[in-house]
Amino acid sequence: MNIETKIRYLAKSVYFQNLYNSAKEINGVHLFENHNNFSGLQVLFLFWLRIYESLYTDIGKKEWKYLDENVIKNDIRCDAFLYWRGQIYDQKMQQYKQEEQIGKLKLKDKSNVNTFNVDFQG
Amino acid sequence: MDSKETLNESFEDLSKENFDISLISDNKMCFEANDLLYRVRMPNQGEQSLVEHKRDLMQLEYMKQEGCITKKQLIAQLKTNKVIDIELFEETKATLTKELKKYWFMLATKDSTDNTRITEYSDKIVKIQDKLQDLALEISTYTAPCLENRLEKFYVEFMTYLCTEQRVGEEWKKVWNSFDEFIQADTSLTNKAVAHQTWLLINRK
What does the alpha-carbon distance between residue B135 and residue B133 come to, in Å, rounded to a whole number? Predict the structure, then answer.
């Protein structure tokens, strides 16, 4: 088992997820012996802690049809899900930006937009 | 069950799996070589500055040497001399990455009960990732002599020389007194130390 797999195993464990949440809420609870000058492995571990925390939260909220505990257990499926979720988020963000831009323009009919509808004279 | 009990129980689960928490418990990494215990540690600010200064000096030194070549120049030369086309390798990497994303997308939208498809797509993903790894390794082998890679190698080696310690009794003592001593040391120890130091520094530069 390679080092990153080991790091991910630790990050998704109930023990470290609980410790991570406690450390965020309670002053004096620390994840590491050192409080600064983190190693690259520790930074990687923190990254995966955050990722798995978001996945457990999404499972709790039943946010995604295809996300369950089995996805979290399997690193390949987990990578696939994270990529797919990222794509969905990007799409939503793009849609939001487009809608926001349309909202800023003075249009006669906002539901059916093309360049002829824009009042460039303002 | 209170939260402390839950924590203790989940910690026992981890221990049962025999997982090495020492990987992340502090900013050091232990390893064994020739039946002796060693560790590499993160550099302090002074050591970090020293390594960067030494790397800058080494860059000037390398640039004076005959045959010093940048990555860009080396890639062009490898292509001209018909040794290998790195750009073609990069294109293959891009195609494989596209393919990987396609299978990620397909796998992500499979229900956990669909074992056949999950296995099929997972196997394809592993194969693509192996190919990508082989390509990266091949590219790095061919570009090893370039200035950038030599400096990178020097940086990690100098850091390893500074930050490797050996367990002697109850104390941790620096292994090498000079960089020359490190260069001339047993490679079975130095290679292991460099590998561990590289892991420790991953994502940090």
Answer: 5
Q: Which residues of chain B are at the A interface, by a Cβ-Cβ cutoff of 8 Å?
A: 3, 6-7, 10-11, 13-14, 17, 19-21, 23-29, 42, 44, 101, 103-105, 107-112, 118, 121-122, 125-126, 199-204
Does pTM top 0.90 for this prediction? no
Burial of A86 (0-12, 13-18, 19+ CB in 10 A): exposed
**Are A44 and B200 a contacting pair at CB < 8 A?**
no
Residue A105, pLDDT > 80, answer: no
The SS3 of residue A113 is coil
ipTM of the modeled complex: 0.85
CA-atom Rg of chain B in angstroms: 23
- Across the interface, do B105 and A83 touch by the CB < 8 Å criterion? yes
Helix ranges (DSSP H) in chain B: 3-16, 22-25, 45-64, 71-80, 86-108, 115-142, 147-163, 179-184, 187-201
